[in-house]
Structure formats: structure tokens, C-alpha cells
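Thread: Modeling a multi-component assembly for a lab meeting

Hi all, long-time lurker, first post. My supervisor asked me to bring a structural picture of a complex we are working on to next week's group meeting, and I have zero experience with this. I have the sequence lines for every component (786 residues in total). Could someone generate the structure of the whole assembly? Inputs are pasted exactly as I received them:
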Amino acid sequence: MLTSLKNSFKHGVHPPENKEETNGLPIRQFPFAPLIILPMQQHIGNPSQIIVKEGQEVSRGQLLAKANGYMSVPMHSPVSGNIRKIADVLLISGQTSPGIYLEPFPYSGQEVVVGKPISLDASPEEILKGIQDAGIVGLGGAAFPTHVKLKIPEGKTCDHLIINGIECEPYLTTDHRVMLEQADDIFTGIRYLLRVTDAKEVIIGIEANKQDAADHLTSKVPTDLPVKVQVVPVKYPQGAEKMLITALLGKEVPSGGLPIEVNAVVVNVATTAEIGRLLPHGQGIQERVITITGPGVKKKGNYLIPIGTPLRYVLEQVGAVDNISEVYMGGPMMGVSASSLDISIVKGTSGIVVFGDNEVRKVGKIYPCIKCSACVDACPIFLNPSKLGILAKFEAYDTMADEYNLMDCFECGSCSYVCPSNIPLVQYFRLSKALVRKKKSAKQQKSNA
Amino acid sequence: MLSKTLHISTSPHINKGVSTDMIMKNVVYALIPVALFSVYAFGINAFLVVNTSVIACVFTEHLLCRWSNQESTISDWSAIITGLLLGLTLPPIFPLWMTFLGGVMAIALGKFVFGGLGYNAFNPALVGRAILQAAFPVAITTWHPSFLEDRFVSISNAVLAFPFAKPIVDGISGATPLSAFKFDHVATDSTDLALGLISGSTGETCSWLIALGGVYLIYKKMMNWRIPVTILTSVFVLSGILYLFDNQIYPSPMFMLFSGGLMLGAVFMATDMVGSPITPLGIVIYGIFIGVLVVVIRIWGGLPEGVMYAILLGNALTPQIDSIIRPKVYGTKKAML
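Re: Modeling a multi-component assembly
Sure thing. I ran the full set together rather than chain by chain. Output:
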């Protein structure tokens, strides 16, 4: 469709939102599980390095693992308790990572250890260090270390600080609740971010289905901050950095480039709130807000859940149906199916959607591509998924990358969502991208040798 | 509780829920009023021709799938569309054995040799019709008047002609508005044209019902509106310019729009997704190309009607259009031309 809407981007899709069941429910504290299992690989980059020993007693908020280099973050204890075991734990990908098994003290007050506060007058470097020390990563789902993202490269300037409150994934309502309930933390976080980025203006982008959150934040904007709350039409994948920049600034981020190329930095709203909440007390992340919903759950809601809580425990507490058939972590468009219930809540978990036997979607019959152009009209970056899909079938990965911009695909899944022939397009592209990257790095190693 | 194996799928975990067979079914629904009108206008002969064509297409698709050890693909409904479209483009008293042969050819040579649904370069129905036009030039241009009184009781001898027998020339024949204009320079009343009270192929005469089917499919978002709109607009504009230039030689643009197979071709055949370009700009180029060719063939060509060849040539051009016209990818400097 030819849409040149103001305050939006072109193409995209409108999946059913399914947010009404949880968007009115306030954030509630989740109980501590009898055993917390903390993987050290919860973020993009190097796994955290464990600095505690088996049998050691730790307090809530105490450092358990330090960052392993710049592209890494530390891990804090979500509970006061005993380190039972240090061993490999299962990740959602099916791989394993070093991990810590932690048994919380019963009846403990669970007071949080207070560290060295980072004041608003601190230097940008100190604040960036503080953000890393707090273990903060992108809470929107990508779990990219926030201090790396906020580092403005030499010679570049940041004019626009964009706070991402879009939450375009169906079912998820965590950012919505955070905006309604943690406005003060968000604005404190914005103060820190302004110190770091030196941005001239701040835009909080919110989709029209969260008008109440937009109104609330608008009414709470401190007079000394250059903050504008901008409501944009509902459309998936508007929460993707590039799409949001286009919607708010009308600019395109160059292919292969970062938002800073158009003088912008985008930070998720829940991440911003976390910065505002943790830095003044020198604390680290111990818990996060997660939407638990789907037809397979009785007590749907938005919960503040300790990091490392086992998925199985979470599902038991919220009254999941007996015949669980599918669970995905994140939303239905980009979330990942859990292959086992023995994984843990991690920093990047924004939602848990549960389906029983009766509700799970049956995969429709796969037909050949009839070139209906639905995918071409959906792709937010104007690729030709139909052609790419055919090339992928013929394993023409180089052609896909060199001539059809495969590497620009950010895997939003809009093409697969609209495909009437049920062709697993984005799934092909994920695989193709991985193969192209592998080939490239093999080539590089060869030329280096 | 919570111990059984889990269902795993990769994201996205949801689908819009419009499936290919649903699209095909809706095209059939949109064609049903057109087919019913053809029976109303031409009676039992048209009924036999259209049904024979559908049966031939479905039968051929099923057999070819079986012979090549594949699952039969007739359940995707696309063979029914091919059969309907072929039947609707044939004259109402076209011999049934030829109709059957056309249906077999449409599926076998128009679709199956390319690899089946999605891989056919040309609209299969038009391939079938082109073969019939080459093989039986007389029968395919033997027209029959519409709304004869005995149309629901009498079957034309020509329709029941024995295969390969000497063609039977039906006593009654009627010129189409296009051939009347081209060869005898007789203009047809425009009201008759719009209402379909004319002679022609079984399903091409009632333009407004065809247009209605198109509106339905566009409303259901199962047809690209740009294709019929650009074809019809370019025919209208080009023939309008010629008409203004000399209204004695050239037919009026309204006549051009509502005569012959233009409406049926623009709405139901040029819009075959497989044979048309995939980008909006490509589609506009494709539409203009077809529209201009229709006018050129009708006015300067040796044939009274050129919609079939125009669309087939448009289909042939589609892969080139798609490889040249590509939208500008987000974040890149310019379109790759």
C-alpha cells in the first residue's frame, strides 16, 4: 500500500494487538522461586565472569559476576541466599552457558545492597561506567549492552535522544505499564542519558494504543527538560530502531549504519527507567517487568520477576494450563519458542506468551510463491522477500546478499506474517544471513593467514 | 504438570490468515456472476463450453500430477480459474472437443511444463486460447448472437461437432462490435455495450458484472487494483487522443473500453499474480504496456481484438520489469536501475 503517513514509516503490518487483557493490570511483585538459576550469558557479547564460590552466602544486589571486557556486563544477585552450585545452565537457544544456582534464604527481608551512587553531576564517562556496572542491557528484548550503545563515536554528535515506548509487539504491555507507573524513574534516566549523549532534544515515541501513557508522561515532563512526547499511529515494526527514527525524524539510517549516522540515539523506555532507578543508588539489575499472557495462562498480568527465576516456576505460579503446547519468550512476531521449561528468566525477557494444545496455531499448507506481492508491500525496508525466498531455495546466498540487500533485513517477520502461501521467508533469511556471515569470516581468515 | 514436549516454531508465530487457496476461491466467486450471465445471454451452448473447459483443466491438472508422482494440486482451485477464464474467452458456439483440447493445452503447456502454480510465465488460460486461435482460426472467430429466444432449449450443431470432422457452419452468426467496427465500420450502441446485450465471447460481453467482480476482489485485497486501473486508463487515454484527432476513423474511448475482451482481460487475466510484476512501479509499466498494445493491435493490427496477445506479451515482459524496477531499499542511496 502506498502510505506516506506523517509520523510513521512506509509499509509494515497490523497484527491483532491482543494487549487489552493485560494493559490495565498494574505491575505486581513476583514471589522468589525456591531455586534461582542465573545464566552468565544474558546479553550480546562476552558472558559475565563468576567471582563467587559454591557454598558462599550472598546478599541481594551483591555482585556475582563481573563484566568480561568492554562488550559485556556484570551480574548481580537477585536474592539473598546461598550459592548451591556453579555449573552450566540451559539457554533458550538450546546451548549452555556457565551459570549460578542460588537458593534464597527463606523469610529473609531481601534488603538490597547499596553501592556507590552515581550522581547526575558525574562525568559522562563515569555515568557510562555506572550503567555498565549496573548490568544494564536493552530491555526491549535485544539485550545489547546499553553503555556500548550510548558511547558516541569520535567526531559524531547526538542531536536527538529517542526514548522508545512503542512496544509494537502484540500481547506485550510491559513498556506501557512502566510508562504509567515509573514516570519519575524515566525522567531521571533521561537526565543521565542527556549527560552522556549531550542531545539537544528528547522525543518519547509512543503508539496511539497507549494514549493514556502518553498523556501521563506529558503531564509529568519536568519543565527544565527538552522532552517532547510524540504519539504515532499503531503499526508493526515501529519499535525497530530504524523505523522509529524514520517515524519521528523523517530520516533514514544508512544501510549498515547506526542511528548516530543521523545524529540520533534510541533507548528503550524500560531501560531508561532502570537507569534512573539504579544509578542514584549504585545498584545492579535484579528483576524486570514481564508480561505473562496468552490463552494458556489463568493469572495474566505484568509482573516484576527476579532475573534467573525458572520458567517452570513462573508458569506454575500464574496457573498455566496442564496441556501447555507452546511458550514463547517475547512477542509473537519476534519472540523465541522455548524448547524446554528448564530455562530461566533473563534480562532480555519482555514477555511470556503461553498456548495450550487447543490454541496453538497449526502451520498452514505451504504453497508455491504466487508472487502476490503481499511481502513486498509489507517489508519496512523495501526488500523483495518473494525473490529472496526463491533465491534462498536455490541456495544462491551470494546473489541474495550482493544484489538483493539480504543483509539489510532485520528479521521483523512481516513477510512471513502476510505470506498466503505460508512460505517461511524470514526463517530462510535468518539462515541465509548466518551462512553469508560465516562465509565472509572464513574468507577473512583465509586472507589473513 | 508441565512435563510434556513443547511445540517449537520460529518467529513469527502468527500469520495474517489469508491463504493462497482462499485467494483462488475468491477469484472463482468473483467469476461466478460473469459465468451465470454468459449462460443467461447465450443459453445452453455457453453452459456447455464453460463447463467443458473447467472439467478439462481440472482433469488435466489432476492426471499430470498423478503421472509425475506428485500430490494432486487441484485443491488449490487455480485450475478451476484457468478453466473458467478459458471457457469465458471462447465463442459461445465453440465446439466442445476443441474446448476440451484447449483446457488440456492450457494446463499442460501453459502451467505444468513451467513447474505448476507459481512458476507459469504466462496466464495459462490465454496460452490455451492462443493455441486454439492458431489451430482453429475459423471456429474461434465464429460468433453467435446473444439473447436468442431458443437459447435455453437448442444446442448448436457446431458445439457438438465430432472431433476433427469438417467444421459445421452454424446458420446464425453475429458479428462482435469490434469486428463490425473494424471490417464494416459499424458502431454499436453504447448502452447495449455497457449492459452486455451484444455478441462476443461467452464471458466478455457484460462489462459491468466483470468490473463488479474486480471491485469485490480489490475490496478483499486479493487483487492489485493498479493493474486494471492502469490498463483501462491507458486504453481510454490513448484512444481518446486518437478520437479527438479524428472521430471518423477512430472509435470512441468508451467503445474501446466496453468492447471485446478488454474488461475481462484487464480485471481477471492481466491480474494473474504470477505473470505480473511485483512492485507498484513495475505494475504501472506493465499496465501501460498492455493498454497501449491493445489499442495498437485493435486499430492498426490485422486482428479486430488484441487483448490476448497484449497480455501474453505483458507476461513475457514481466521478468525483465521485475529485474530492472526495484524499489529503493531503506537506507540506500538510490534505486538500483
